[in-house]
Design brief:
Elements (H helix, E strand, L loop, with lengths): L8 E2 H17 L1 H6 L10 H15 L6 H15 L2 H16 L6 E2 L1 H18 L8 H15 L6 H22 L1 H6 L4 H19 L2 H9 L19 E8 L5 H9 L3 E7 L3 E8 L2 H8 L4 E9 H9 L5 E6 L6 H6 L3 E3 L2 E4 L2 E4 L6 H10 L5 E3 L3 H12 L4 E6 L7 H16 L3 E5 L4 H16 L4 H13 L1 E6 L4 H5 L5 H9 L3 E6 L5 E7 L2 H15 L5 E8 L3 H15 L6 E3 L2 H7 L4 E7 L2
Parallel strand pairs: 7-8, 7-12, 12-13, 17-18
Antiparallel strand pairs: 1-2, 3-5, 3-6, 4-5, 9-10, 9-11, 14-15, 14-19, 15-16, 17-19
Helix pairs in contact: 1-3, 1-4, 1-10, 1-11, 3-4, 3-5, 4-5, 5-6, 6-7, 7-8, 7-10, 8-10, 17-18, 19-20
Length: 599
């Protein structure tokens, strides 16, 4: 668009107008976070909207065609949308793209029409639309643009005048929503949209693309709020996902989500949609959804743990581990342990380990799926985000991870810790457990108890480094099928071993590499060998504690518990399903024993 008063809006103008509006959101994250009290008082609306616009700014480039640009903006926003407000904003952009004709440039009349026609898309996306939010403000803005489209011929003037309507609608959100009326705040999502339009108006007024390009080169980080009120959380997990090619209607999908939580939004189309809800059982939800489309992305935030960090910290040292740590949820919750999930894939199906798929479901899929599962490491950015959040509230951080021989998770955590140590000037200790599963669980538990006891950071780390050397795990494999499928055992060797009924015992060496500890011809024989070895290496030592693990084999787990009680005179920390990272190779029926000896 060369001149504003031509009413022709092309792709490049739309792109730079979006960037200008997005920059306003990015620059005002703190204020938006501070006034966020609805639908949940978790002070993250600014961050969520910023994440959504950042996804667009980072992933698309200017294009001369309006239709191409609006489609690209909508797709990038849907992919990067975060939180209730981000998904609603993305759905508005999706409606805008769907209601725009395939043209290189459009008139203001056509733009106003597309804005008006996008409103039903937003209302249809939300299970329970509530007035006095972003919905109302966008609707009021659309109505103003529509009523002016044939009266005033000055596009710049119409946009400037629309700001008055937006600010009036924004002010009224305080009266329309009870939660806002108590605080005197306006709705944070609505204010985010007003700021977005204000950024566009400033751009139209100045018409300085050169300045905007300079601003684009500046990195504006996402800001995490450090405030949260002591409000009861009824649904623990803020859950989001992208689903492709769903085989039910969006309305049916919305009803399924509404039965399992609140704050439900379904944005996009049947070919690709983004869902958002707050729920207590994300794993059951995704198990139910897996046959209704392809789940290509998932994000689950534990709002309870976030709430504890801000308002209910028990100790001044934060403890972090990854999802290969096998420890009961009761202990994880009591000690406020932060567990970061690895990614698990069955072909095109994507899961977050122990969050959107629990071990019992995993073993069902292991047997029924034609695809052998794969795991992927936790990336550095995930740890950077977590550690920056924790470093804002704790005096120190200790992170224990699965062996570095199995995953780059430890390395990525270490890189993130170096950055956070410099930025916050606080100690962040990242430990390679050289182990995993129940052995990692024991190390995490003992560290948690040392923190609880008030030991110094230096003492805790010294003890932990010694404990790493005296923690062992032994896995009795009942069936070699999955070790063969996963490539851990070659097919020819596996065929012969299965033919003669070989049952291997797998352990870890001192460097954290897997070790074939022994071979027997029955699981009972392999377990007897494990018990004998535990007695031998424990001679003259005492057992601090142990964990019994099994892969869909509770009877075998109970028998192992009885035998270990005879040996140690102690009950185990827990008896539980083994981590999928081991179970995917050990297969159904496997039994494992993890032991930590006193030093």
């Amino acid at each position: 668009m060369s001149k504003i008063d031509t009413f022709e809006i092309n792709g490049k103008f739309l792109y730079y107008a979006f960037v200008a509006g997005g920059n306003q959101i990015l620059q005002n994250q703190v204020e938006l976070n501070a006034i966020n009290v609805f639908p949940v008082n978790d002070n993250d609306t600014g961050t969520n909207l910023a994440s959504t616009v950042r996804s667009v700014i980072d992933n698309i480039k200017p294009h001369k065609s309006y239709k191409t640009t609006v489609n690209n903006i909508a797709d990038a926003a849907l992919t990067g949308a975060r939180g209730n407000s981000g998904v609603i904003f993305a759905q508005f952009l999706h409606g805008l793209s769907r209601e725009t004709q395939n043209k290189a440039s459009i008139t203001f009349f056509e733009f106003a029409e597309s804005v008006k026609k996008s409103i039903p898309y937003i209302y249809e996306a939300i299970a329970i639309p509530i007035e006095g939010t972003m919905l109302t403000v966008i609707k009021d803005w659309a109505e103003f643009l529509t009523c002016k489209k044939g009266i005033i011929s000055d596009f710049k003037k119409i946009m400037i005048d629309s700001l008055v309507v937006l600010e009036k609608s924004l002010a009224e959100t305080t009266l329309k929503l009870k939660a806002l009326n108590k605080t005197g705040f306006v709705d944070a999502g609505a204010k985010g949209f007003v700021l977005f339009v204000k950024g566009i108006i400033d751009f139209i007024s100045d018409w300085n693309i050169r300045t905007l390009k300079v601003e684009l080169t500046e990195t504006i980080s996402l800001v995490h709020s450090e405030k949260m009120t002591d409000e009861e959380i009824t649904h623990r997990f803020c859950t989001e996902a992208i689903l492709k090619n769903i085989n039910i209607t969006k309305k049916e999908l919305q009803e399924i989500l509404t039965d399992r939580g609140d704050s439900v939004v379904v944005a996009g189309s049947e070919s690709i949609c983004r869902i958002h809800l707050h729920t207590n059982q994300p794993a059951e939800l995704f198990h139910h959804l897996k046959d209704m489309g392809t789940i290509t992305y998932q994000k689950v935030d534990d709002m309870l743990r976030q709430h504890e960090v801000l308002t209910k910290r028990k100790w001044n040292i934060a403890l972090v581990t990854d999802s290969t740590c096998d420890l009961s949820q009761d202990l994880i919750d009591y000690y406020q342990i932060h567990v970061v999930p690895l990614n698990l894939n069955f072909g095109d199906y994507y899961y977050l380990d122990k969050v959107t798929i629990q071990p019992n479901r995993f073993y069902d899929l292991l047997e029924s799926s034609s695809e052998f599962p794969k795991t992927s490491q936790i990336n550095e950015q995930t740890f950077t985000n977590l550690y920056s959040h924790l470093a804002s509230h704790y005096d120190a951080i200790i992170a224990l991870h699965l062996t570095s021989e199995f995953s780059g998770t430890y390395s990525n955590s270490l890189k993130a810790s170096e950055r956070i140590k410099k930025e916050f000037n606080k100690p962040v200790h990242v430990i390679n457990s050289k182990n995993l599963s129940g052995a990692l669980g024991l190390l995490v538990l003992k560290t948690a108890q040392n923190i609880e006891a008030g030991e110094s950071l230096e003492s805790i780390i010294e003890s932990l480094e010694r404990d790493v050397r005296t923690t062992k795990i032994f896995v009795s494999v009942r069936d070699l099928k999955h070790m063969i499928r996963g490539g851990r055992v070659s097919k020819p060797k596996g065929f012969i071993a299965r033919l003669i009924g070989l049952n291997p015992i797998v352990s870890m060496d001192k460097n954290g590499k897997s070790l074939l500890f022994g071979k027997t011809f029955s699981q009972q024989a392999s377990l007897r060998k494990i018990y004998s070895h535990i007695k031998r290496i424990g001679h003259g030592k005492s057992v601090w504690n142990y964990i019994i693990l099994h892969a869909h084999n509770p009877e075998g787990g109970q028998n192992a518990e009885d035998k270990m009680f005879e040996i140690t005179g102690k009950k185990p920390v827990s008896v539980m399903d083994i981590s999928p990272v081991i179970g995917m190779h050990a297969g159904n029926g496997a039994i494992a024993i993890a032991v930590l000896f006193n030093h």
